[in-house]
Amino acid sequence: MRKVMTGFLIYGLPIPLLLYSLTVGPSQGLVFADYWEWGREALSGNIHESSTKVYMLNNIIGNVRLPRVLLTFIIGAGLASSGGALQGIFRNPLVDPYVLGISSGSAFGAALAIAFPLLHINVMAFVLGVASVIMTYSFAFSNNKSSIVAVILSGMIVSGIFTASLTVVQYMSDPYKLQAIVQWTMGNLHHASWDKLNTAALPVGIGIVGMYLMRWRLNLLALGEQEAKAVGVNPTADKATLVALATLTTSTSVAAAGVISMYGLFIPHLTRMMVGPDNRKAMPANIFFGGSFLVIIDNFSRSLMDFEIPIGIFTMLLGAPFFLFLMKKNKINWV
Amino acid sequence: MTETAIEVENLSFGYGKTPILEQVQVAFPANRFSVLLGRNGSGKSTLFNIMAGLQKYRHGSVKLMGKERCKLSFSDCARVLGFLPQFHKSVFPFHVKDVVLTGRAAFSAFSPRKSDMEKVGQSLEELGISHLADRPYTELSGGEQQLVMIARVLVQDPKIILLDEPTNHLDVYYQTYVLEKLKKLTENDLTVIAIMHDPNMAFLYADHCYFMKDRTVVTPTTGFDFHASDFLEYVYDVRFTTVLVNNKLMVVPDRKTDNRIQVKP
C-alpha cells in the first residue's frame, strides 16, 4: 500500500499536476466552464474563430502559464537531482547544489548585469556561477588531491567573497536597480517565458539525463573514494562528470529563475524517506517529485495572496516547516 | 610446487623525503592464507595500498600473477585483485545488498545486470549473512559490517584478496568467524593476504606469516620454532614467552614489572 502511494506521488502526480496548474493564477472570473470550452476549441484547432474570452484564455495559458509551469518543473527537477547527486559525491547530507558557490556567484553576475548593463542577465549569472565552481575547486586542490572538507570549506569562502561583492554592487546601485537585484536574488519565476524555457531546457535536460544515467555509479561514490578504488573503479572521472552535470544544471536554473535556496537540500532528504537511500530509485524520485513539488509551491505562491510571493522565499516558508515536520516524525538521526 | 600470487621486488617508496618502504622483497604464494604482521607505522598498510593499486610506486616492481602492477588498468586489476581497506564508514543507510552490489561496478558501467544480483546472493550465502541482505548497513554491528565488506570484495570474483586488518575491532567470536571463512576461501583457488596485529590469531590460521620491521619485510634466519621469541622481540620490541598448544606456536608478551592487579577488599 505504502509502495503504491509513493509510486503514485513520484510517477503519477506530475502529469495531472501540470494540467491542473494551468488553471491556477491571479486572473479573476475564469470558471471551469471556460477552461472546458478552451480545451474543446484548442483540440479542434479553431481557437482563432472563438469568442474573445476563450481567445484571451488561450493567450494566458499558452504564453504565460504553460511556459511557467514547465520551467518550474524542470528547475525543481534539476535542483533536486543536483542536490541528491552532490550529497552522494561529497558523502554529506548537509550539501546542497549551492555548496560550490554557484548561487552567490550567479547572484553577483546577475547584479552586475542589472546595475551596469554589460551583458544579458542570464548569461552573466551562468558565467559567474560556473566561474565560482572552478574557483572553489582550484583552491581546494593541492598535490592533485582534494579532500571533501577542503572542497566544502573552499566553497563557503568563495560564496562569502561573492556575497560580499554582491552587497557592494547593491550598495552602489540606485533604488530602482536595487529593487530589481533584490527581486532576482529571491527567485523570479514570474518572469518565465517561452524564451527562458527554451534557453534553460537543453542544459538542464542534459544535466538531468546525465545524472539519471549515473545513478548507480553514485551509490559507489557515496561509499567513499577508497572503497571505489578497492573494487577497481577510479572514482575521479565519475566525480568530475557528476559535478560538471550538477553545475550545468544548477547554474542554468539559477540563471533562469534566480536563487531558490534550500530546495536542493531538502528534496533529496524527502525522497530518501520515500524510497530509501539507493540512488537507483532516489534519482528518478528526485527528478519527478522535485519537479512536482516546486510546481505545487509555485501554485500556492501565485494564488494564495493578491500579490505574488517570490518563489525563493516561499520555498523556505512552505517547504522548510514541512521538512522539519517530516524530520521530526521520521526520527531522522544522522550518525 | 606453488605459484606466486604477488611478487614484490626491491620496492622502495616514500612520501616526500620520508621513506616508508625500503627495498621490500617478498613473494606471497597462490591459494594460501598469508598474514603480514608488524608494529604500527612499519609500512604494512602502505605496502598493501601499493599492491592494491591505491598508491603509485616508482622504484622496484610489484607483479600480480606475473604481470607488472602499474601496467594493469583499474578494471583489469579488479578482475585479479580485491581489496578491503582498513576504515569504513557509510553516511547513507544503504541496504546491505546495495552495498555489496557496488563491488560489481568495475564490470557493469551504468546499471547492474541480473547476473550481478545473483553474485551478490552467492557471496552473502558463502559468508553466512544472507539474512542481512535487506538491513541498512549503518545499523549493523562492527563484525557484521566487516563481513558485508568482505562479501563486497568477493562479488568481484578476484583471484587474490587483500585485507587490511580484517579482525580489527571485532570480538573473539567474529575474529574466529572471519578467519575461518578466509581460510576456507583459500580452498576455492583464492589467495588471501591479510594484515593482522595478533600474532597468536595469525599462527592459528595462517599458512604463512610475514613480518615488517623498519620499512621492510624481514624473515627469521632460523626456522620458526621455540627460538621465535628472539625474532618476535626484534619485530615488536617486546619480550615474549613461547608455548606450544596443540602443536601450534603461541606467544605471550612478558610483563616488564610485576604489578599485579590489586583487587580491593
Automatic annotation (TrEMBL), chain A:
Check the record and name the SUPFAM superfamilies matching this protein.
ABC transporter involved in vitamin B12 uptake, BtuC
Q: Where does the record place it?
A: Cell membrane
Sorted alphabetically, which Pfam families does this protein's record hold?
FecCD (PF01032)
* CDD domains recorded: TM_ABC_iron-siderophores_like
Topology in the membrane? Multi-pass membrane protein
| TM stretches of this protein | 66-86, 98-117, 123-141, 148-169, 242-270, 307-327
Give the UniProt keywords, A-Z: Cell membrane, Membrane, Transmembrane, Transmembrane helix, Transport
Coiled-coil-forming residues are: none
Which PANTHER family does the protein's record reference?
FERRIC ENTEROBACTIN TRANSPORT SYSTEM PERMEASE PROTEIN, MOLYBDATE IMPORT SYSTEM PERMEASE PROTEIN MOLB
Identify its protein family.
Answer: Belongs to the binding-protein-dependent transport system permease family. FecCD subfamily.
What name has this protein been given in UniProt?
Answer: Iron transporter
Give the species: Pontibacter amylolyticus
From TrEMBL, chain B:
PROSITE patterns xrefs:
ABC_TRANSPORTER_1 (PS00211), ABC_TRANSPORTER_2 (PS50893)
Instruction: Specify the ABC transporter domain's residue ranges.
Output: 6-239
Q: Which UniProt keywords apply?
A: ATP-binding, Nucleotide-binding, Translocase, Transport
* CDD domains assigned to the protein according to its UniProt record, in alphabetical order: ABC_Iron-Siderophores_B12_Hemin
Specify whether Amino-acid biosynthesis is a keyword of the entry.
no
Q: Does the keyword Translocase apply?
A: yes
Q: Which residues form a coiled coil?
A: none
Function of the protein: Part of the ABC transporter complex HmuTUV involved in hemin import. Responsible for energy coupling to the transport system.
The protein in question is named Iron ABC transporter
Q: Which organism is it from?
A: Pontibacter amylolyticus
